[in-house]
Amino acid sequence: MNEEFRKIIRDGLWDNNIVFSQSIGLCPLLAVTGTAVNGLGMGLATTAVMVVCSALVSRTRLLIPPEIRIPIFVVLIAMVVTLVDMLMNAWLHEMHKVLGLFIPLIVTNCAILGRVEAYASRRPVAEAAMDGLMMGLGFTLALVVLGAAREILGVGTLFSNASLLMGQSFAGLEAVVIEKYRGFLLMALPPGGFLMLGFILAGKKILDRKLQARSKAVSVSMTETVRLEG
Amino acid sequence: MSGVNFDTLRDIAASWREKLARQFDDLDALRQRLDYQTYILAAAALVSSLLLGIAHFATQGAIDSRRNEDIGVTLEQVLPGSLHDNVLVDDAETIVEPTKAGTLATPVYIARLNGAVTGVAFKFTASGGYSGPILLMIGMDKDGAVLGVRVVAHAETPGLGDKIERGKSGWILSFDRRSLDNTAPGRWKVRKDGGDFDQFAGATITPRAVVHGVESGLKFFQRHKAELLE
User: Fold this and answer.
1) What is the pLDDT of residues A42-55, one digit of tens each?
2) ipTM of the complex in this document
3) Residues 87-106 of A with CB under 8 A from B
4) What is the distance between the alpha carbons of residues B19 and B15, in angstroms, rounded to a whole number?
5) pTM for the structure as a whole
């Protein structure tokens, strides 16, 4: 794997994560992260749309004049979302019954337009598709983390209804974390999403600073060793 | 004569094709032209509409049959198999009622045991949901007592209002055996409004709409009891 792809993976999952670093796509984020499973479903559907849209735009990027790129991107994204909705309804009906509610919401996710505009419209197809995949997975990660945190605090369970989304074999994931929990409604409501997102963003900042400090320490000790040997 | 015409036409077509192909040689210049920008935006819209149209026709059959299967499954839940020996989906009678905006046709599925009517089931729309109408399937015996209610389609908030689904909670079972005779008009409300039915923490509007919808459904049956039971 070459350097560019490694950078795409790092950017998508952590360094430039749609939610944790860019803080966009918050509308669907706050709407569906009441539970971890809802977050997972929404994240995967968004990922699918992002990969297709990025690849499409990258393939046709030379034909699209910069002056009217935004309307063209919007038309493309709306089309892909509607296609995903129809195809899932017809051939993945069980999954559509669970996710169907969220799929039209994907259109409201400015992260898709953002990635198409900032990356896919300037890059070859393979890199653009990879970027869509990684950004989508990073978004999924954020949704699941936020959903899990809100679900545990809000209703005291984790991965409830996992079997509805992924089939009976995943029923074992469903867990009651806090027994006889009375529930904390604020966390289940959108304001709880904002609060929890704030805590998670702060947590990431702290973690990043620690990582930075450590890598600086490592490079300093390495130069010292070199000097000693020299 | 016709041969000459055909040759000329072919020449014209060939020259046009060549002209068109040459247009795409210099994409940088092409992208700046205003007429090209108009065409490409129109083309994007046209291609998107075409794809959606094709997808619509390709999936419509599958979606319809899935929907019919869903109706069958829901019917089995609101009209127990012990009450009928006919195929419900094929035994429907349509009731037409005038409404404020014209007329409303409601297909009523009739359960028969040895030819005698034992109960009916129909889809009924509960208005006043938190986000749009809620579609219910109501099954009742021939005396107008509820055998079962299920939510067929809704757009309520995931994690809050969607507890009306049987898959998410048992709330919808609280209508079983209710009828206009054993529940007075003032009791068809959620507890918060002084009625018999629980609301959800964080969502009162949704259950309020469903309770009102079921009551209206029972009244609908009462109005048409004579025609349906003959």
Assistant:
1) 898 899 999 999 99
2) 0.76
3) 87, 89-91, 93, 101-102
4) 6
5) 0.73
